[in-house]
Every structure is written in C-alpha cells, then in structure tokens.
Amino acid sequence: MGRSSVEAIETKEMDYRSLSSSEHQQEPYMHKVGVPPKQNLFDEFKTTIKETLFSDDPLRPFKDQPRSRKFVLGLQAVFPILDWGKSYNVSKFRGDLIAGLTIASLCIPQDIGYSKLANLPPQYGLYSSFVPPLLYAFMGSSRDIAIGPVAVVSLLLGSLLSNEIDPTTNPIEYRRLAFTATFFAGITQATLGILRLGFLIDFLSHAAVVGFMGGAAITIALQQLKGFLGIKKFTKETDIISVMKSVLRSAHHGGKKNKKLFWIPAIAPLISVILSTFFVYITHAEKQGVEIVRHIEKGINPPSVGEIYFTGDYLLKGLRIGIVAGMIALTEAVAIGRTFASMKDYQLDGNKEMVALGTMNVVGSMTSCYVTTGSFSRSAVNYMAGCQTAVSNIVMSVVVFLTLLFITPLFEYTPNAILSAIIISAVIGLVDYEATILIWKIDKFDFVACMGAFFGVVFGSVEIGLIIAVSISFAKILLQVTRPRTAILGKIPRTNVYRNIQQYPEATQVPGVLIVRVDSAIYFSNSNYMRERILRWLMDEDEQLESVGLPKIRFLIVDMSPVTDIDTSGIHAFEELHRSLHKREIQLVLSNPGRVVIDKLHASNFVSQIGEDKIFLTVSDAVLTCSSKSPEEVV
C-alpha cells in the first residue's frame, strides 16, 4: 500500500483510540428510537388513501360551512369562473381582449393546417377552436393556456386513425372513428381527474417528452414538404427515410423572442394567408398547378353524437386510439399549465384541469371536433399579449365563430404551400435543443430516453417513438426501484456527522465498523439486491483490511434514514442478512429507522431477534456504542 493509505489507516486508529478514551471518561446520553402508537386498520387505510389520492385536501374549504355555502363552493370547484369572475373588471377584459384577438389571428391559419395533419377537412380544425375553448374557459383553472388543435396530437391522431381506415377511400368512416377516439380521449382525461389519478401522466419522463416532441416536430416539418413543394404522389409513411425518398423522386417536378415584438410572429401567419390567398385569387394560380385548400364548409359545428361508434368493431379501436391521444394531450396541457402558473405564481389544480380537458373533448366529439389540448405556441403568445384570465379563450372562440359564419369561403384559394410553411414555423420551436443539452449534462440515462424517443419518431413512426418513450421511462423507474443506491459512510473530521465517503473523501471510516446507507424503500423488488450488495461491501472491506493486517469488521451499521418503507420481503432479507452476519461473528446494528419501518420491524419480531440495544437514533450513537465494546463482548 502507498504512504497515503497507511496514513489514512493510522488516522482511523487514532480516531478509534480517542473515541474509546473519551467514552470511558463520560457516558453520553442516547435517546431511544420511538415506536409509534398502534393505529387500527381502518385509520391506517384512511390515512394511506388520503395521502395517496387527496394530498391537497380538496375538501378543506367545505369544512364547517353551512349547506348553502357548500353548494356555492361546489359550483365554484366545478366552474372556477364563478370564483374569479366576481373580481373581473374592465382592466382585465382589456388585456384578455387583446390577447384573444392575437391568438385568434394565429389559430385560424394553424387550425386549417393542423386538420391536414389529422387527415380531416379544414373546417374541422376551426370547429375544434370554437366549442372546446368556450368550455375550458368555464371549467379550467389555468389563466394562460390557449386551447385548440395542436400539431403533435393532430399528427398522432392522423397516424393512428390511418392505420385503421384509409381517409381517402373511406372519409366518412374515418371521420366517425376520429370522433369516437376524441370521445374516449375525453373520457380518459375526465376519469383520471375524477379518480385523482393524474400522477399516472408523470410516468412519461420530461426527457422522453422532450425527445418525443422534437422527433414529432421534425416528422411534421418533413411531411409539409408535400404541400410546400407541390408534390402530388407522397408517401403515407411518417419516417424520415420514406419521406426523403418521396421528395427525391419528385425533385424534378420543382417545387427566443422579443416580448415587445410578440405580435409580429403572432399575426404573420394570418397576413401570409391573406396575401397569398389574394394573389392566387387574382392570378388564378390554381390553374397553373398551385395546390389550394379549395372547399371549406361554411357554418358552425354540426352535431356529431350520432357518428360516434358505440358498438361494432371500431368501438375498441376508437377506445385504444383515444386513450393514447388523450394521455399525450393531457401531458402537453398539464406541462404548459404548470409552466405559466409558476411564472405568474398561482396554483394550478391538476385534477380540475383533467376534468376540464376531458369534458371539453367529450362535448367536442359530439360537436364535430377532434382532440384538442393546450397549445405551446398559442399559450406563449397569449401570455406575452397580456392575458389576465381564461376570457381570452372566449374572445378567440367568438372570432372563430364569426370566421365560420362569414369568412370561410375566402380561404378556398389559400395555397397549401403557405399552410405547410405556417405548420413548419409553428413546430420548429418544439425542437428544444437547449433542454436536450441540459438533460445530457444532468442525467445520461435521461438523455438515452430523450434520444430513443426522438429517433423512434424520426426513423420509425409516431407510435414507435411513443412506445420507446414510455418503455424507457418505465425502464428507468424499474431500474431505480430494483437497484437502489447504497453508500459507505465515514466520519467528517471534527464532527459527529457521517456521510458518503465518495462524496467526502476526507471522511474516515471507523475501525472494526462498516457503516452502510440504503437510499431507498426496501421492497420485494430490491430486497435481495440490497442484501447481496451489503454483503459485497462487507467482503470487499474485509479483504482490504486483511491485506494490511488490520482486524476484520465486527459491526455492520445500516443507516435507515432514507428508507421510507419496508415490506415482508425486505424484512425477510434483513433476517437472512442477520443470519449471514452471525455466522461471521458480525453484529447487525440499525440506525434511525422511520415510523413506518420501526413499526413493521416490531410487528415482525425482527427487533427481538437482533435486540433492542442494536437500534439507535443516530449513526453517531451507534458508533460510540460499538466502538466501546471489546471483541469478547461482541462474541
């Protein structure tokens, strides 16, 4: 061994001697680990349910209120507009009016383009920006989110629906399946909110979402080359290789923002549509081969409840597609809502958001709308335009209503190329390279998830990218659950604090004592790994001590501070660990088990197996006691 290793061992021996001498001089006070009072089964179950599903205590405002007040509070809980509407004034309306008109100018050309991604006629994009935003304004809790069709969900819906029905040969059945999927997307979202299961969307990690959105943006942009370049024969596949083959085969045919200037990119799409439509109309460019929108139905949303499949083969297909589209739409909307809520410092009720989004999609499916959610680009414009409340959505909805009644025939001459350009400019911001770089710096496994989702969408399909994103997210969870981190602790010089020796190289280990910390709850999924990992730590440490002629480990102290829970498999693993240590003449000592853990250790009689005197409140107390014992006392 080198000189530094010898010095470290000598330091440990000096620490041990000083610790032993001080121990003989004064017996320190050691507080025992508390055992919580017994709870009956019903109270324990009620507490668990409350903490799992009702951690925000939603019924607190109803406590000690008269019946009439409870009724009013109930209405305000379902329709938040009844709460904040009481303080609404002209000043707020001015901000909402400007914001609503601004996002309307952005949404109209986007909606016509996004409906193409969903393989639906252009009016259905406009329908989807009329009814759903109105409903959300009454039921949603976000002040800034702008509701309507979005590029990623439109692409996902179009891709999944096209796998079941060809939109060209069977447009009516395709449309019916789209409404069916929208209905079940809403049912899925509302059910998650009512049952308070919103935490399920958190299983799709941020890194996977970043990669999925980036890949979808590239895919959407590539697909717009058909309209942008005027390509007539274009692949129905979404992967980059198929798209580029179509582009190359048809090549011979031709073809961060300043907040004060936010209105320029916001109104640019509408101005582009107006100018290009005007020039096509006066020059009759459509006769020269320029592809245009052609017919757009005039009038507001027709009812479509009779078109939803409630029976037959397409029912289950609509259910499956709706669940997938609904979850992705929900993930996007909640992410947007939380972002702007934190920027303006107000609370966003995630479960209310899910109910609101679900309700608007259920009603939307009955009024000729397809899946809608919060839009990144429109919400950002809405925020920068100075919106104060969800009334900006109402203003936008009114503008779309007037457009459907009076203006839609004017869009018949809009060239497809300009709509493709608008979609490309809208989705290109979804490629968040800064977030990708940050993910690489913070967590390499997250980066793998991000890139897996990205390349899955770009080189495969939206479905493959989504499957990869979900699979990698679950794999990460399983890896963290089944392979929890463990660490060897040492004493920080001139303190009684014990920390990870890899994080604090100056920390010294106590002679004859190995201190291990388990940084996770101990369940059936990781209990065997935990036991085997601790034994490997012990074997490695003994081999190192034996090589330099020092005494072997006599005590194993397990710091239980991070262990929030333990099940029967975990306790069984500790029993096996205790037996293995006993054969090696090593005592097992536990430090600071939590309330739930110590309760289960007592219930299983494990405490009586190792002895009450082997459980300590702190690692320092455990070390003081163990270091003061002679080898004869240990045996």
Automatic annotation (TrEMBL):
Signal peptide: none annotated. The chain crosses the membrane at residues 145-165, 177-197, 203-222, 261-282, 319-337, 390-411, 417-440, 447-475. The keyword Membrane applies. It is found in: Membrane. This is STAS domain-containing protein. The keyword Membrane applies. Gene3D superfamilies: STAS domain. It is a multi-pass membrane protein. PANTHER family: SULFATE TRANSPORTER (PTHR11814). Residues 1-30 are annotated as: Disordered. Residues 503-626 form the STAS domain. InterPro entries: S04_transporter_CS (IPR018045), SLC26A/SulP_dom (IPR011547), SLC26A/SulP_fam (IPR001902), STAS_dom (IPR002645), STAS_dom_sf (IPR036513). One of its GO terms (molecular function) is secondary active sulfate transmembrane transporter activity. Coiled coil: none annotated.
